[in-house]
Amino acid sequence: MRVAHSLYGRLLAWLALPLLSLGALLLLQAGWQAKATADRAHDRLLDAASLAIAEQVQWQDGRLWLDLPPAALEMLAGDAEERVFYSLVDQQGRHITGNAELPAHPGADAESGDTLLYRDLEWQGLALRQGVRRSRLEDWRNRERFEVRVAHTREGRDALRQALLRGNLAGILGMGALAVASLLLAVRAALKPLTRLRHAIRARDPRTLVPLELSLPRELAELREALNELLVRMRRVRANQERFIGDASHQLRTPLAGISARAELALRDTDPEAWRDALTTIQATSERTARLAMQLLSLTRLDNPEYQATHRPLDLNACVRRAVRDHWTSCRQAGVDLGAECAEGEVAVNGTEWQLEEALANLIDNARRYGARRITLATLRSPPRLVVEDDGPGIAPERRLLALRPFHRGRDDGEGSGLGLAIVDGIARTHRARLTLDAGAEGGGLRVELRFAEPSP
Amino acid sequence: MRLLLVEDDALLADSLLTLLRAEGHQVEHLADGDAALARLASPGHGVDLLLLDLNLPGAGGLTVLEALRRHDRETPVLVLTARGAVEDRVRGLDLGADDYLGKPFALDVLEARVRALLRRHARTARLVLGPLELDAATLGFTLDGEPFPLPPREQRLLACLLRHAGEPVEKARLVEEAFGGDPMGDNAIEVTVHRLRKRLPAGRLALRTVRGLGYLLEAEG
């Protein structure tokens, strides 16, 4: 299993990431806005100062004359002790007067008219904000054009920008902290049902398989339903096991009681011949009981609703030959002729070897118990078939279906457990094979056929 | 022969000890897996046949088998188990068991399997079945101590059947061993079996046909 990341951490990361980028954007925007506001405020000062200067320009003695109003410059020098520069330039670009020869503005020409043009400027090692106003004398005699250039250093603007930014920053950081805190709380609250579910599972009695009853949000309710379905399947398996234990103890108790009674009776007797009889019976009964226990186990495993067969390609002929080898000696001792009639080559099916062997063992055993003298195991191809035919009494057509039911026993049979054919039926089902019971070739006996699907290539 | 029986059920072990000792074997009995592991740890254990239960206290039977097979591939092992499923048998045989008996088993079946295993892994060069004896070195048969001469094919066929006496041998295998895989062997074998059958002493040795499978040699009477 891969190491899972914390759901809490993941949620937090995905929510915090956009929040942080949003915060960063807000900060950037606040910076721009502070600068723009500061510039706007101070640009208005530049505007006013340049206008005041322009109004004082006169024509005296055949040239431009400026009587600089001190208020115009004081306006520009704020509390931050900026340095203030101005210059008056005539139409030809000649410096007329001023405290500095400020450079021209590239956009200032005839079209720009009587508006102030601003720009940020690096001049003689100073960062300046410059305003350039083109104007003309409003005298009826002389309409000489001139240019007023004003500039100041940026200290005042920077101070204002920082003050504005500080105010904004506090707001943004406060909001950010609030958002992160509510995020933490929200994620924690959203994950709370998960914690509840965990506690509920942990607090359960491991032996109980009752469904989880717990109200949960929809997404987790689906998980709870999946868990409950698993529990239902486990209940079915357990019910199957419990039924087996019940069946087994019931079925096994009866012959054991017989053995015990027979032994007790024999012990009361003193005749060795009676002991011998009793021992023979006890041996036969105990063998039958052991076989019954094994059959019960096979049947339960096959009946398990959760049983998943893992079939592999195998050769039916090999199964038949092995079954004949395994059972031939015991059949011969009982006077039964066991043989095989295999199709040429291989008869391939998908199956589970031990189950097919178990099926054959049960069919051979059944045939012997019901009095067959000759048993033939055969294979046929297209479709692959496994056939067990005997010359015993057979089963009447109307009783054939009934014979497949567990614990059903033929009328004149004192020995069988009634499980053999039920086991074969179970094995046929796990192989998706069709089980048919018929009369033998000559009309007598029983012919059991398992018809398999062709194995997919 | 020295047999080692590893079986924890006292009643069953007692019966098997009685049976095998009556057959003239020296039988040693251990009741748990750890003791068996220790006993079989080194190659010089001197056991000719191991009868091994799978469900043991201490180390399990399959563990014992695995440990033995790591240093000893020769000693035959007969697995006895109550775990009825054939799955277990497959696993046991995969790990190197030579044969398998599911409990409960009939004592005569056990006897036959033990005899077959001992014969197959015999360190002595002589195979015996009833009155018939094969000297593996010369491949010569004797019947009641008298030489029993046979044509080469019949001799090879009988040797093969004798090695597996008491169990059905598939026809294909007989063709392989007695006729060297000769493609004509399939028909020839029936003729050879027919001839051989007539030579065997009636009522003492029987060469039986296992319908659709092959043949089996057993002693009678």
From TrEMBL, chain A:
Pfam family membership, one: HisKA
Record keyword Transmembrane helix present: yes
Domain HAMP: 188-239
Spans through the membrane: 169-191
Stored InterPro entries: 2CSK_N (IPR013727), HAMP_dom (IPR003660), HATPase_C_sf (IPR036890), HATPase_dom (IPR003594), His_kinase_dom (IPR005467), HisK_dim/P_dom (IPR003661), HisK_dim/P_sf (IPR036097), Sig_transdc_His_kin-like_C (IPR004358)
Keyword terms, alphabetized: Kinase, Membrane, Phosphoprotein, Transferase, Transmembrane, Transmembrane helix, Two-component regulatory system
Gene Ontology CC terms: plasma membrane
E.C. number(s) listed in UniProt: 2.7.13.3
Database matches in SUPFAM superfamilies: ATPase domain of HSP90 chaperone/DNA topoisomerase II/histidine kinase, Homodimeric domain of signal transducing histidine kinase
Keyword Acetylation included in the entry's annotation: no
Molecular functions per Gene Ontology: phosphorelay sensor kinase activity
Protein name: histidine kinase
Species of provenance: Halomonas shengliensis
TrEMBL record, chain B:
InterPro entries xrefs: CheY-like_superfamily, OmpR/PhoB-type_DNA-bd, Sig_transdc_resp-reg_C-effctor, Sig_transdc_resp-reg_receiver, WalR-like, WH-like_DNA-bd_sf
SUPFAM superfamilies, per the entry: C-terminal effector domain of the bipartite response regulators, CheY-like
Sorted UniProt keywords: DNA-binding, Phosphoprotein, Transcription, Transcription regulation
Top-level taxonomic group: Bacteria
GO molecular function: phosphorelay response regulator activity; transcription cis-regulatory region binding
BP terms from Gene Ontology: regulation of DNA-templated transcription
SMART domains associated with the record: REC (SM00448), Trans_reg_C (SM00862)
Domain (OmpR/PhoB-type): residue spans on this chain: 124-219
Species the sequence originates in: Halomonas shengliensis
GO cellular component, one term: cytosol
Modified residues (4-aspartylphosphate): D53
Residue ranges of the annotated DNA-binding region, renumbered to this chain: 124-219
Domain named Response regulatory: residues: 2-118
Protein name: Two component transcriptional regulator, winged helix family
